[in-house]
Amino acid sequence: MPVPKTKPATSMPQASTPEPASHAMPEQEEFRQHVRRLTMSAVREMTRTSHVQGARVVDRSIRGRMHFQSSWVSQRAPPPLL
After folding, report:
1. What pLDDT shows up at residue 61?
2. Coil, helix or strand at residue 5
3. What is the predicted pLDDT for the residue at 16?
4. Left, alpha or beta for 22 (phi > 0: left; psi -120 to 50: alpha)?
5. Does residue 74 register a pLDDT over 60?
6. Taking 70 as the threshold, does the pLDDT of residue 33 lie above it?
7. DSSP for 12-66?
8. Residue 25 and residue 17: Cα distance in Å, rounded?
9. b/e map of 17-55 (b: 16 or more CB within 10 Å)?
């Protein structure tokens, strides 16, 4: 025996301003691309800063060694003349 089909007692609420799906997807893609560009820029800047700081540490280390060696060399007696 077939059962009669009835509509649900409550209606499904609809959005007050329905937007087509075609508008939502490009905006989401645009936002995703924007966030990706920001992230890439931040990583690039952090990498650059890290390299600059590392170079400064190496530079200070080399200068410190040069200063130490120059003060050590100046304290030594001059080589004898032959």
Report:
1. 85
2. coil
3. 56
4. alpha
5. no
6. yes
7. PP--SS---HHHHHHHHHHHHHHHHHHHHHHHHHHHHHHHHHHHHHHHHHHHHHH
8. 16
9. eeeeeeeeeeeeeeeeeeeeeeeeeeeeeeeeeeeeeee
